[in-house]
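During data preparation, a discrete fold description was generated, and the record follows.
___
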Amino acid sequence: MQKSYKTIKSVVGPLMLVQRVEGVTYNEFVEIEQATGEIRHGKVLEVHEDTALVQLFTSAQGLEIATSKAKFLGRSLELGVSPNMIGRFFDGMGRPRDGGSPIIAKKRLDINGVPINPTARDYPNSFIQTGISTIDGLNTLVRGQKLPIFSMSGLPHPQLATQIARQAAVRDGEKFAVVFAAMGITNDEADFFVRELEKTGALSHSIVFINLASDPTLERIATPRMALTAAEYLAFELDMHVLVIMTDITLYCEALREVSAARKEVPGRRGYPGYLYTDLATLYERAGCVKDKKGSITQIPILTMPEDDKTHPIPDLTGYITEGQIVLSRELAKRGLNPPVDVLPSLSRLKDKGIGKDKTRHDHSDVLNQLFACYASGKDAKELAQILGESALSNVDKLYSKFADEFEKRFINQGFYMNRTIEETLNLGWELLMILPRTELKRIKKVHLDEFYTKK
């Protein structure tokens, strides 16, 4: 039941206190109507006896509490969903920002979602092709997986995010869509995302939610939930395989910290709220496959590590919840290698479930393991040469050093506009492995060596 109250006691910053309320619940959506007819929105952060603490989605500037009334709508914030959302841009609250008409909703869904019953989850076991060799070949993305990208300030993660949005596809011809959520970005970055998706045609199978740095803090917290709600509708009601890309999770966490400070909560590590882990889990755990459902949700959250610190609470807690990480390298970026994926610390814990015969190719696992091993040996050889000089290297060490150089130059450095199939990636891997003698390829089965290792 909707109830209106003229008992607004105070407004401090984005927080509003309403007294003598009844039946109000946590997270309930609120409309604040002024005497002029202007309506602002908020949600209930806390309820104590007959007092409700409401956070405003917009600035409180100009709000006359003596003549305003708060209406509690009896529901959480909802998103109107429809198949017509595909190909459209929205703001962080789900309103069209592309100049088009509002969406005629087939239904309205709570943006907080419904937890997936653990017994209803199906194990991820199918491949998603991103067209990027360092991901497809070495850290394979699997449907239903949560695979974050750990970046650093100033690195080209926006370009990598749009490359994945443009190129991602499933290989079995099933229905596929991308939901892109950008939080706290500048107008220039927003224009870049829009331009890239439009000019390449990727927008035809995408839904985009954009929250600008100038938008309200609470909208930034709602943006990823809007995107995930749209993804759940596409996946579990329209039977589509959906890839959700969210950038930048660090800015989302900063918004959480700002809200926590406004509520005067006791801070946790580095000032972030003590419930940061739980809050991130409510986002990440909305990925997955469900038994008896054809669709799936796969997530690629992108975060910038403050001060390039992997032990910072945001990457640290993200690593606990997700299944691996793709790590970007500042050193590779300085050398002009793009996308600058550092393959050695990167990991996809579910890659073995999404590769092999009938999924990628029967030799994929062997090639993957051998490329990792040879690149690590090549890096060791290059470090040894820097200390002792190249003359101290054996002939085999020199070949490993050459392999590392060629691997970075040809495998890692593919640029932001080259889309490689998994077959092209694996064939390139074989070309690089043939720099080394056959006797050094000890992680590859003989049957695969006989098939693919040919004379130069």
